[in-house]
Specification:
alpha/beta, Non-ribosomal Peptide Synthetase Peptidyl Carrier Protein, Chain A, about 45% helix, Rossmann fold, seven-stranded mixed β-sheet, three-stranded antiparallel β-sheet
């Protein structure tokens, strides 16, 4: 791919300076942050004295619990690669397993020297159930969260072996109900709501620096479930803004499009975007956006510095890079979100390998400075200047920018309307194509490859859930990964339904009964 580096040393007109972040802007942003903190009246770790220590105890016990499931010899020296082989850990979860080893090492239960590991007999003292019950009893407000974490831990063995998809633990049946319920019923002591709820006001302030009649283009990376999307769109309703909602997962795009239509946001464009690739590879034009925004997205990159560098060419001159960002995450979060796709990518990043998935605020300043971003500002806890684990990042685009020439046009996904066809053999293909298409928001051909359409484990989990609901068939995500094309998937479902009908007819004749649904489902689920 051709690329060019340009250096802008002069400004031809005043427009280019309209979005330049000034000390006055930072003062206003800090005032917005302070006011939001006063309004939120959030609890903090100080209100739940000792909770962090209890969480750390659960983390250590969780790591030990994983090893208890195997006949690991204490005080024996293993080569780490041999231990991973004995534990049958698949490649995608080796970093997760190594993380658990490091947790035990940092607490004195394991000795790691170079590539060897020895598990001390003192690890036998660690009891996960006891640690969980103790924490739930002392902090009942967090019981739902603690129990969820325990359930995640208990699935390590099956997930690490590849017998079960990690996403199916986080999102049962491809739904977010469990996590959303925990979030709604657990106190938030992270201070995140302050910055999430202040962000729309901050962006609106920065937009008003531009002339009123000029269209503002905003690109959101990793929109996901729309935590910052919907409050921001509502704050900007009626303004001349074109909003690009992007995510690597097409299922998120489909859900976001439906919500935008229901909320009557007609200024939103939905496109897939992978931060590991250049914008040109994905059909985006250079210097297209006034703002690039995100919330806790960039840390999933294999190389954070390269990802941020690639983004600079998407911004117009003096365009704004703005993030709602964590600067540290606690070990307790690894126990569950370690299942999430992309979580362990940071172990390939020279800046973060063996450290924390999140980059500290001072390291963010160094990174952006190396890339020559301008007017770099990290803002957190303006009231007390104490809590530095979460906050804002603001910077103007560098003058020196690496541009890439487009190689293809981006294709906006379409939502396929549902079909009311009956489940007869002539309509099965249409129904399955509809299920697959509505999951990713595109019309899809029967001879298409599932993976070529951008299916990830979450998308396939949703497809599996829809197939179960429609045809009463349990198809594991692992099985879907083994199916290459939509045509093969259709053939498989037809086979299941055909066997279903054959079994039903046989039992009806033999028993003279039509009430055999439970038996049929048992047969189908065991296919």
């Amino acid at each position: 791919m051709k690329k060019n580096v340009f250096n802008y040393f002069s400004i031809e007109n005043g427009d280019d300076k309209e979005f330049e972040i000034t000390s006055k802007d930072i003062s206003i942003i800090r005032d917005i942050e302070k006011e939001q903190e006063k309004n939120e009246k959030l609890p903090s770790e100080m209100d739940y004295e000792g909770i962090k220590d209890h969480y750390e105890k659960i983390v250590v016990c969780a790591a030990a619990n994983y090893l208890y499931k195997h006949e690991i010899e204490f005080n024996k020296v293993y080569a780490i690669k041999d231990l991973l082989k004995e534990l049958k850990v698949i490649p995608g979860y080796k970093d997760f397993a190594r993380y658990l080893f490091r947790i035990l090492e940092s607490n004195g239960y394991v000795e790691i020297n170079n590539d060897n590991i020895k598990i001390n007999e003192s690890a036998k003292e660690l009891e996960l159930n006891a640690a969980v019950e103790e924490a739930k009893n002392k902090y009942p407000d967090f019981a739902l969260q603690i129990e969820f974490i325990k359930n995640c831990v208990l699935e390590y063995d099956s997930v690490f072996k590849g017998e079960k998809e990690g996403n199916s633990v986080l999102y049962p049946d491809g739904k977010y109900d469990t996590i959303l319920n925990i979030g709604a019923n657990t106190p938030d002591i992270t201070r995140k709501p302050i910055y999430i709820n202040a962000f729309p006001k901050v962006i609106k302030h920065l937009i008003t620096k531009k002339e009123k009649n000029k269209k503002i283009k905003i690109l959101e990376l990793g929109g996901g479930t729309g935590i910052i999307t919907w409050p921001l769109l509502e704050e900007l309703r009626g303004m001349n803004v074109e909003y690009y909602f992007t995510d690597i997962g097409k299922s998120f795009l489909v859900m976001a499009r439906e919500k935008a239509e229901n909320m009557h946001y007609d200024n939103v464009i939905f496109k897939q975007y992978n931060i590991e690739k250049t914008y040109a590879e994905q059909g985006f034009e250079k210097e297209a956006f006034d703002f690039i925004i995100s919330m806790d997205v960039l840390q999933v990159s294999y190389n954070l510095e390269a990802a941020v560098n690639n983004l600079s060419g998407l911004l117009k001159k003096n365009g704004i890079f703005a993030c709602v960002q964590s600067f540290h995450t606690e070990n307790i979060n690894y126990l569950s979100y370690g299942y999430a796709p992309g979580w362990w990518n940071y172990e390939s990043d020279p800046l973060r390998k063996g450290k924390n998935i999140m980059l500290p605020s001072d390291e963010w300043i160094k990174l952006l400075s190396r890339l020559e971003y301008k007017n770099i500002n990290i803002i957190y806890d303006s009231l007390n200047n104490k809590y530095d684990k979460f906050g804002f990042i603001f910077a103007n685009r560098p003058d020196r920018v690496e541009f890439f020439e487009p190689v293809n046009k981006g294709i906006e996904g379409k939502i396929v309307n549902g079909s009311n066809a009956e489940n007869n053999k002539e309509e099965i293909s249409k129904e399955i194509l509809n299920i697959v298409g509505t999951t990713i928001g595109e019309e899809i051909a029967e001879d298409s490859s599932l993976l070529e359409y951008g299916f990830d484990s979450l998308s396939l989990l949703i497809v599996s859930s829809k197939l179960k609901e429609k045809y009463h068939i349990n198809v594991s995500v692992k099985r879907l990964y083994d199916i290459d094309t939509v045509k093969d998937l259709v053939a498989y479902i037809k086979q299941c339904i055909s066997e279903n009908e054959t079994t039903e007819n046989t039992q009806t004749q033999a028993e003279g009964s039509e009430n055999n649904v439970t038996q049929l489902l048992d047969i189908i689920e065991n296919l």
